[in-house]
Amino acid sequence: MAFAGLNEAEVKAALDGCAAADSFDYKKFFKACGLASKSADDVKKAFAIIDQDNSGFIEEEELKLFLQNFSASARALTDKETKAFLAAGDSDGDGKIGVDEFAALVKA
């Protein structure tokens, strides 16, 4: 499922840039796919897509499948990448990423 408002070519390039295991860098990814330059409202919409269980948080299992939200054929993140992504985004230490934490990650 493509994110509304993102350029498909940019998303593909962002996914291609982290196709190899342990090559995912959230800062590069958000910039390459164009999400970093989107409005706060668009970032919230992206959060809602990634928050697949609608809990109001992105948990570790949802982060693992993060890339697959952009393309069904994308790989899952490795455990190392998932833990690093979670650590970068979880500013309050509760083990999950809330919408404000996600917005801060996207704009980092």
Structure report:
Helix content is 49%, strand content 4%. It has helices at 8-16, 26-33, 40-50, 60-64, 79-89, 99-107; strands at residues 57-58, 97-98. The chain has a two-stranded antiparallel sheet. Helix 3 crosses helix 6. The longest helix has 11 residues, at 40-50. It starts with 7 loop residues before the first helix and ends with a helix. The mean pLDDT is 95.
- Outline: globular
Give a count of the beta strands, DSSP E runs of length 2 or more.
Answer: 2
Separate helix tally = 6
Summarize the main sheet: 2 strands, antiparallel
**Category from helices, strands and their pairing:** mainly alpha
Any low-confidence stretches, pLDDT <50, length ≥5?
none
What is the secondary structure topology, with strand pairs?
Elements (H helix, E strand, L loop, with lengths): L7 H9 L9 H8 L6 H11 L6 E2 L1 H5 L14 H11 L7 E2 H9 L1
